[in-house]
Amino acid sequence: MEAAYVSGVGIRRIQRSHSTLRAVGSPRITFPEALFHSCHGVTPFPVQHDLVDHPLFDIERLASLAASLPAHRVEWNAGDLPASVRRDDVRSNGLSAVETLRSIHRCGSWIVLKHVQLDRDYARLLHECLSPIQAALGVQGLSLSRPVGFIFVSSPGATTPCHLDPESNFLLQVRGTKSISTLPRLDPRFVLLEELERFTVGGDRHVQLEDSALAEAVGHELSPGDGLHVPIHAPHFVVNGPAVSVSFSLTFQTEATDRERGVLWMNHRLRSLGLEPTPPGTSNALDLAKLTLFKGLRSARRVLRRNPPPS
């Protein structure tokens, strides 16, 4: 891949030369084979897709999907936010989910439809898109599990503040343009280990960043047909372009992401006991011991839920 750094306001932006990409996979989603094997799970890299103008991403079809999903699977808010914000400072837009979608071109909002695979049509599309990714993971001895699809719809100029994702993510830009800015994962300059551990056990996904940290972000410009791999636990924020944006997010777990999340979960418990646990990846032996303990505790909790002790 040829990368040129273009000046921006506090953000390094990457432009790609599409002619250098060796595409592999199905016609639905393609990606540079060498970059996948060297970068997946570690650092962002580009993909391409053929979902532009796909009817499942028409606004009225998305409004129908929003109305059919369980209420807790739809989230929306005002989109005029800074890149770094606390969860308590995220404001409602005063509209319903369907109203938000139908007025997205003028209401200054952001909305996400979660677990879209609950709808049969979107489940089929998610499976088609993930097929070449599963094949590439297989070459690495990994398997794909617990796939989940998200659809993001944003008003012109809307911002999605800096946050973490608890899974491996491929974000496909279907309509409009956006800039997604990423920071290195597992870097304590941006997210302290204790904060990452709290996130893993259900804490706030939002990341608080100083201006100096925001200046370290690398910006990736996405147009329809472009996509980007965002590794698990890589802080990122999104600024929408001058038109309505629609993106399809393909997320999943692998043995590697499950391992990292299990170690972080155990680290949180160990820290509550006054210990100072090492970060994931510091020691394979320590990670294995933590995972063994994590799995044992998880199994015990399941047994207790099925067979609660007598009161």
Automatic annotation (TrEMBL):
Domain JmjC: 114-267
Gene3D superfamilies membership: Cupin
InterPro entries: JmjC_dom
Alphabetical list of SUPFAM superfamilies matching this protein: Clavaminate synthase-like
Superkingdom of origin: Bacteria
Protein's recorded name: JmjC domain-containing protein
